[in-house]
Amino acid sequence: MSLASTQKKSFGAVLWDYLTTVDHKKLGNMYIVAGAFFFILGGIEALVIRIQLMKPENDFISAGLYNEMITMHGTTMIFFAAMPILLGLMNAIMPLQIGARDVAFPFLNSLGFWLFLFGGIMLNLSWFLGGAPDAGWTAYTPLSTQSPGHGVDFYVMGLQLSGAGTLIGGINFLVTIVTMRGPGMTYMRMPLFTWTTFIASILILFAFPALTVGLFLLMFDRMFGSAFFDVALGGNSIIWQHLFWIFGHPEVYILILPAFGIFSEIFPVFSKKRLFGYSSMVFATFMIAFLGFMVWAHHMLTVGLGPVANSIFAVATMAIAVPTGIKIFNWLATMWGGSIRINSAMLWSLAFIPSFTIGGMTGVMLATATADYQYHDTYFVIGHFHYVIVGGTLFGILAGLHYWWPKLFGKVLHEGMGKIAFWIFFIGFHLTFFVQHFLGLMGMPRRYWVFLENQGLDTGNLVSTIGAFLMTIGTIIFIINIVYTSIKGEKASADPWGTGRTLEWAVSSPPPEYNFKKLPLVRGLDAYWIEKMDGNDKMTPAEPLVDIHMPNGSILPVTMTIGFFIASFGFIYQVDNKSWLALVFIGFAIALGSMLIRSLKDDHGYHIHKEDLEREAD
Amino acid sequence: MSRWMGKLKVFVLLSFAALVLSACGKENLTALDPKGYGAQDAMNIMVLSIIVMVSVFIIVMLIYTIVLIRFRQKKGQEDYIPKQVEGNHTLEIVWTAIPILLVLVLAVPTVISVFDLADTTEASSSVNVEVTGNQYWWHFNYEGEEIQTSQDLYIPVNQKVYLDIQSSDVIHSFWVPTISGKIDANPENVNTMFIEAYEEGVYWGKCAELCGPSHSLMDFKVVVVSQEEFDAWVEDMKNVDAEEVPQDAVAQEGKELFEANNCMACHAIGSSPVATGPNLTNYANRTSIAGILEPSKENMVEWLMDPESIKPGNKMTGNYPSLSEDEASSIAEYLMQLDHSETTPDSAGN
């Protein structure tokens, strides 16, 4: 156990601890909890959408509200649920996997989290401040520049805040992996989850600036009278689509690659067999990431870019099937000849293979430009990307949560409930989204508030809605499982699965705040497994017991974020009345003041002394 | 438990099969029963890609099933450690090379048809229509013919008709699934696409790009008629007398109200290029009111009285004096008598 948590603390002290923490494990857990909260919000929005589409010409919600629902569902799920939970897992696990005591920049790590959280809060406050954004999560101009009210402004500022946070997080992970790998941890000994964290961070580094630029242009157009996207004044609205998808397509891989990493951890552990084709897995991940930057215009095949562009982007997109196929076969080959145990983590991973294969196949089908002229912007696309994002990313997140829950929270999730939740969710998922491929081809475009009677779309939509309810039930059981586990769950040992292969299983669950008392010596891929096979129950230390240097906590990330948060409101409302600009100045004063304090005040951190460490159990 | 699961599986499979068999979708709306050039091309590629993809899926699932049956940990195997295989170069090359080949099989026909569908060399010798997407209706201007119309696009069967598509406001997307794939209507440029229908009939068109609250209500129709009927329609439409006074007294009153309420500021009858609102020429033969309602006088009155309740966010609401039911009824009577052509949606397919 860590030093601090041995004595009971008051609520205020706990709160202060969380507000100021720079510990990667605490921040990881905070990312996951906040992401889960937004996931529930996005889920409720999804359910409202499905209830509206339960029957033809339904009037459950109005057309305007429906457009707000679809926009918020997409934006919330991508930016504030899937990404943060993945970032949380990366944060909590990756430093442990490379034998590091924390990330390279603990202070920035905290800043990244708070920017994300306040960005999400900002976006969702729009519900209470005159209406949510309603131009779709893609916010295509000129619909988004013409959208009345402040909804889209909240979208712009909310994403800008959280986008800055994500960019900070990505850079932090990159530096951590490059500079802080433990003794003996060469690149080609890194676990696959660390590799995918690394590669996803490269994607973040290069993709997010495109979104930042796009959002700035949109902000200037909406708030300061510029005309980047205004055709009447010589602007061009297609530019937004390019900027958005130059970010947006790599974003898809930012979501899926870490999930691939999670599966690459789980299959070996529960097959008791080393990952098949490790180097080709790393290579395939790089290939996917590289090609991911070359294919953005396949989201724009119907824009009218001409046959040359359409052909190039179509073929480039198909090429991504090759490295993805390599991965699928490598996972199967990992299990081949293994000794497979099936628990909840493994169930989600096993379910991923057929689900994601279907999603990948429809992806290749979408890449065939001629047929895409039919699929594009219909429910076929909705079916496709939910197979990829739910069947890939969300299944990966759920597999990862079941797998690492003991490491994150010190308790093993209840297996029975885990399995029930899985089956209900899994059946619901396929019921919801499989039929949508057909709905699309039968003539139902996406983002339709109502579909008309007698168009042959009734049955499919009803089936889809029933599936959505099953997914809801599955999610509720999972939440009950979490509550039950945190109250009654059994305490987890360091290696609760017994077959852990990577370094995180060599430290207690949850790990002490300094992670490793003595940094471990890594002797190959699957470092912990190697030691176990050699009959050691512990890692060989690479250093004697010495004082451990730790970073100090700080409230400055929170105050900086609050500064930007206040300034964002100033930007949004100065459109109505220039006196709101005062908020911009106040906000920036707080943010820049916090930065000044951070720059001027020397903070050398503190040391946990050798003597204290000796007193703690292993 | 297992018996219950078995029954559930049978139920799911059966209901799924029923779903697939019963529904390829509604005729002349679905893309699964193509009756035009682009739709047929798309269908060919779809079938090819499905064959390729399903074979891959079957192979994956075959290996997957074998793995799950053969390699489960059995009782007493708790301490068994399988051989730690690093990889296998031959296998890895095989499952890299085969997908590359499969991708090529798909890529070549795709590229060929993309270029074929973008070919506009025959445009000068064919019917050309300027299509404008508006929130939330479509305008059609037959180039070189002085014909303006809205919502119902008349085209001759078995002939490539070239559409020059653009938008007057936000981005829309022009999609007639049974005849052809879609292309966006952008505010900054004209996208040219041809459509060719193989059968006469009335086809549903949809807007496929989110364009505001009534995005889902921006339906239109493509009326495909024989060449003779189309030629007759063109003649009729060129000779519309916009000033023609209806015979019936109620309709006459309707015409007066139509003019008095300044409806002409936005709506034209005849070939006037005014297109702030839909052109109302030949309104008696429209397949729908506002794109979605059955063409009847009651629906027309309902629309005139309160368009917002039918198409939220439309540009007509609030831009004309409110009408009494009688006034609306007279105007409806007038519009429903604007019968300018012998060629009607009923001609399609007869």
Task: Please describe what this structure looks like.
Chain A: One of its GO terms (cellular component) is plasma membrane. Chain A: Residues 10-523 form the Cytochrome oxidase subunit I profile domain. Chain A: This is Cytochrome c oxidase subunit 1. Chain A: Keywords: Cell membrane, Copper, Electron transport, Heme, Iron, Membrane, Metal-binding, Oxidoreductase, Respiratory chain, Translocase, Transmembrane, Transmembrane helix, Transport. The complex is a heterodimer of chains A (618) and B (350). Helix content of chain A is 66%, strand content 1%. Chain A is mainly alpha-helical and 618 residues long. Chain A folds into two domains: 8-554 and 603-615, Cytochrome C Oxidase, Chain A (Up-down Bundle); 557-602. Chain A has a two-stranded antiparallel sheet. Chain A is globular, with a radius of gyration of 24 Å. Mean pLDDT of chain A is 95; it is low at 1-5. Chain B is of the alpha+beta class. In chain B, 38% of the residues lie in helices and 17% in strands. Chain B contains eight helices and ten strands. In chain B, the strands form two sheets. Chain B has a five-stranded mixed β-sheet. In chain B, helix 2 runs antiparallel to helix 3 (89-117), helix 5 (249-260) packs across helix 8 (325-336) and helix 6 (297-305) crosses helix 8 (325-336). The radius of gyration of chain B is 28 Å and the shape is elongated. Classes of the chains: A mainly alpha (618), B alpha+beta (350). Chains A and B meet through helix 3, helix 9, helix 10, helix 11 and helix 12 of A and helix 1, helix 2, helix 3, strand 7 and strand 9 of B.
